[in-house]
# Entry
Amino acid sequence: MATTTNATTTHYPDDFKCPISLEIMSEPVILSSGHTFDRSSIQRWLDAGHRTCPISKLPLSDPPSLIPNHALRSLITSYTALNLSKPHQNRGNSETLISNLTSKSSSPEAKLFSIEQLCQLSKHDFELRKRLTESGAVAAVLGCISRKNYITLQEKALKLLLNLSLDDDNKVGLVAEGAICSIIAALSDGESADCRATAATVLTSLAVVEVNKATIGAYPFAIRGLVTLLKEGGGRERKEAATALYALCSFPDNRRRAVECGAVEISLISLNSGLERAVEVLGLLAKCKRGRDEMIRFNGCVKILINVLRNGNWRGVQYALMTLNSLCVSNEVICMEALKEGVFELCLRLRLICK
# Structure
């Protein structure tokens, strides 16, 4: 992505610049602390042995997780390509749409039209997202999410909320405005599979900020709703539920909550049925004793993890190794079972591949 060629003539928002290099980011990634950096810059930081966030100084997850910030990358690309006057041309129209959305007299159909248009416009317009959050529109969006028997309205409102959550400055503000209650309701009782999957995606986006992980996890039905969706949902729902659980369970208290909701058994069953993202959840749950105890009690746990070592992608292999290591260190019987299943030979083979 070429973003530097116009840098001398285009004024980029500060959010587009890497906090380390102070240059426009070409491959933005998110740390577990919630801050975004250019991949090359933060990788040099990690390669130097640092295990804290350069900005917040908070300790990073182990291993450090670099989540591609596709939304920001798309924003930078679009900002570079589009004429900077275009957002100003749309300003008058967007103000009308916001007014229609927030008006108590607007019909559901009028609100749906406004939300559809704002969803398209706000996807690549940072200033519009800022105006939406400052205009009181969030309450109206949450109201649309809570509307029953309006499937399309709920779906579009959740997607607009997802757009608003793209910016780090909005993530804490949305939680403060009560977004979690509406999201959890949609997660459990959404009018469609798309609603439920998008609700899980919004939770993942909000959980990028460390403080939100604790806040979301403290809601009684947040983690339980995700575990239920992982168990009962369709393909996309289960994938998004596992991603959200992974994001939330990097916070230690949420691991306990997830285990209490049955996340270990459901993650193992999901992993065994082909949802490889579930092994990432298991890798975090294995860090707490109750999580390990549940895995040890599950018949076939070692075989499922060994299967990931044999057939999984590289990220899945890493988390399967992490999980097996935690189990073997704490339980000799599991260690012997893993050896019997060929874990030592697999590790030797992986070591050769890494070389």
Summary: The CA atoms of residues 63 and 90 lie 44 Å apart. Residues 1-9 have pLDDT under 50 and may be disordered. The chain is about 65% helix and 0% strand. The two ends are 31 Å apart (CA to CA).
